[in-house]
Write a structure and sequence with these properties.
The chain has 335 residues and is α+β, with helices and mostly antiparallel strands. It is built from 17 helices and 7 strands. The chain has 2 domains: 203 residues, H-NOX domain (Alpha-Beta Complex), CATH 3.90.1520; 109 residues, Arc Repressor Mutant, subunit A (Orthogonal Bundle). The protein is 56% helix and 9% strand. Strand 5, helix 9 and strand 6 form a beta-alpha-beta unit. The protein starts with 5 loop residues before the first strand and ends with a helix.
Length: 335
């Protein structure tokens, strides 16, 4: 099964805040991407991977700054924003905190690739947000400097990387990299990574707090469960919607599209406290309401597109959902 790739709005909220501080009006960006009602401080408010890439493209167009990723990371708030940063800060050492960041990386984004590799006395924090897509320069720049600033802030400037590796092509001008990073930066690298000295990352953190750590681990575990639930349901809804184009859908058809057995899908949905029939019913209701608002579709069209073989079955279902017939619902829309 392939998850619907999504990212927490916490970091994009930091980006927008930094844009505002730099004098850019982000209200148009919010409207363009339907983010006006998003609570940027919540890990459970998510945006898609495609939207994230498009937002960075629009930021590049808006600012016309080739180093905008670096400049936004330089000025964004590195306070304790989000449960993942709290987990890092509450850990005994930065290395322990980084391992927790890797463990709970799905909260940042469920296609975020974070890993730690050790090579003698060097430790590399590897990162990638592209999941096989082209990583934009602004994204790579922002995340590299953002991660470095987290390490620097939590260690009170005592921990500095010894090398930065970026997969992007080498820019013509390097003065901003030289100004912002205290170490060499290698471009066109096979991977994106920040290299630290092992001894530095094993130094105690002044912010370590076992009681807070326990609380934040509980919160993080709860977030992971909610994100997994939402991902499964969103992916199933997409599979059902596609299958409906070929006619009525049942759990066997949906499971096959998700490369799962019926039993696996039933068990996965049961763990989320729902069932295939409930998901199908909810999706049909949402689809029918949206389609009925478009006058070019007849009631028969809507019934077929929602996976009903007979219009009468659709009418009965719609009346159960909204207490009116589809025709009366359309009349109410015109009133």
């Amino acid at each position: 099964m392939t998850d619907a790739y999504s990212y927490s709005t916490v970091i994009i909220g930091l980006v927008f805040d930094a844009l505002n501080k730099a004098g850019y009006d982000t209200s148009q960006l919010r409207q363009q991407f339907n983010l006006t009602d998003i609570a940027f401080g919540s890990e459970l408010d998510r945006i898609s991977q495609d939207m994230l890439i498009n937002i960075w493209s629009e930021i590049e167009n808006l600012t016309q700054d080739p180093d905008i990723g670096l400049h936004l990371a330089e000025h964004c708030n590195i306070g304790l924003n989000g449960v993942v940063i709290h987990l890092v800060a509450s850990s005994d050492t930065l290395l322990e905190g980084m391992n927790r960041m890797v463990r709970y990386k799905k909260i940042i984004g469920n296609s975020t690739l974070l890993s730690i590799t050790e090579d003698n006395d060097k430790i590399l924090l590897n990162f990638d947000l592209s999941h096989g897509n082209h990583l934009k320069k602004s994204q790579a720049d922002f995340f590299a400097l953002y991660l470095y600033r987290i390490a620097s802030t939590l260690s009170h400037q005592n921990i500095k990387p010894s090398l930065i590796k970026l997969s992007i092509a080498k820019p013509e001008k390097l003065n901003e990299y030289e100004r912002l990073f205290p170490c060499p930066v290698v471009f066109s690298s096979p991977n994106n990574a920040i290299q630290f000295e092992s001894g530095d990352l094993n130094s105690p953190l002044q912010s370590a707090n076992p009681n807070l750590l326990k609380i934040h681990e509980g919160l993080a575990s709860g977030y992971i469960k909610e994100i997994d639930s939402k991902n499964l349901i969103e992916t199933l809804e997409k599979a059902i919607s596609l299958a409906m184009m070929d006619g009525p859908v049942n759990i066997a058809i949906a499971a096959k599209r998700l490369a799962m057995s019926e039993r696996q899908l039933k068990e996965a949905l049961s763990k989320q406290g729902t069932s295939f029939s409930e998901i199908l019913e909810s999706l049909r209701e949402k689809m029918s309401i949206r389609l009925l608002q478009q006058p070019e579709y007849t009631i028969t069209d809507v019934a077929y597109l929602c996976g009903y073989s007979e219009s009468s079955a659709f009418v009965r279902a719609f009346k159960r959902w909204k207490q009116v017939t589809p025709s009366d619902f359309r009349k109410q829309l015109k009133a």
